[in-house]
Amino acid sequence: MTSITRFTQILKPCTAFFQQSVHKHNANKYLKGFSCENLLQVMLFAQWSKSGSYRILESKINPHIKLLKRQNMPLISRSTVSYALQNRSTKPFEETVNALIELCRNNLSQQEYKQLKLLDSTPIQLKGKGFDKWVKSNSRVTGMKLHTVIDNQTYCLESYELTLANQTDVSIGKHLVDIQAGQTYVFDKGYCDYNWWWAIHQHQAFFVTRAKSNASVKVIKSNEIEDIDKQVILQDEVVQFVNHHQKKSRKNQYVEPLRRIMVARENHQDALVLFTNNLNAKAIDIATQYRSRWNIELWFKWIKQHLEVKHFLGKSENAVRIQLLCALIAYLLLRLYYAKCQVSCSLHHFFVWLGSALFERATKIDWKTRWHPPRRIYFGQ
């Protein structure tokens, strides 16, 4: 007895919702052949098969004629996909990402779900002919930014936003974070806004961030540092802001004490200065929490290395947004399928194996069998 392909199995969690969203926004109006559903399938195949150009995508997907017909997918051409990327609505793709984020969150057990959230953004470099008509730039990058909040334990995406590069991190981050009591939010000094920090404190949540060099504070008291931590923790002080106004004459609402912790860094003369409103935790634990912020940098690195977010099929803003949204959909679906298969290999090994087996028929045994990466073979032994 035959079964559906793995490609169809991976798409199952989002197929029904995407169709509902397409119907809601009437996104298939006046379309005869290549629908929004077809565009989603093609773009997800491009992500998982690492197809960075129209020619490669066409040569990889069109040989599977019989399987394409079973999945109601037509043979694609470069002009058809290019036109669809420029003219299809981005709303169904945006709503599908949000639905998959909620699905991933609901599938996490309470033991796995930790109260440490990481906030940061990464630049998407866009340069060259075609991009110059609409991209914006800041002092570092020309293109777009992907702003994200992820869970530190599960690497599950919590929320996201795509903006042009001239948008500041703090202006997006304030609206991106859904502050919940008891959670700890870790971010760098690009999110320096004392009034936002005060809002986090008012919601009985915690933050750990890096202090700016021009922060003006007065020391209220110094906390004792345990002997075992003295090589790492240089100072642990309870401080209070001296300045009553922030930039642009905004009143500084943060009037309660907070902690300033100075952490020694290897191969650096200057210490790392951290601010937090957690007055009870150990200083070494606060330093460890900020060190966990590196995990979101690793997450960005994984996305950029393994998904197609550097080479874009289309150069219009609509085409770039759809490809980036499909990259997020591809990652979330991959995480769900990875958890369902219960394999013992890493996500990277699983992704590499899956890219070569998308159109294979998956049997029930595949769900129960743990797939192991091949043993290393050393030549010369």
How is this fold's topology laid out?
Layout: H1 6-25, H2 36-48, H3 54-61, H4 65-70, H5 78-87, H6 91-106, E1 116-125, E2 136-137, E3 142-151, E4 157-164, H7 169-176, E5 184-187, H8 194-202, E6 206-210, E7 217-222, E8 233-241, E9 258-263, E10 272-276, H9 283-291, H10 294-306, H11 317-341, H12 347-355, H13 364-368
Parallel strand pairs: 1-5, 5-6
Antiparallel strand pairs: 1-3, 2-3, 3-4, 6-10, 7-8, 8-9, 9-10
What integer value in Å does the Rg equal? 24 Å
Oligomer: single chain
Shape: elongated
Q: Which class do the helix and strand fractions yield? A: alpha+beta
What composes the largest sheet? 10 strands, mixed
Task: Note poorly predicted spans.
Answer: 364-371, 373-381
Q: Report the end-to-end length measured between terminal Cα atoms.
A: 44 Å
Order of helices and strands: HHHHHHEEEEHEHEEEEEHHHHH
**Mean pLDDT level:** 86
List how many beta strands DSSP finds.
10
| Annotation field: number of helices | 13
User: Helical amount among residues, as a percent range?
Assistant: 25-40%
Residue fraction in strands: 15-25%
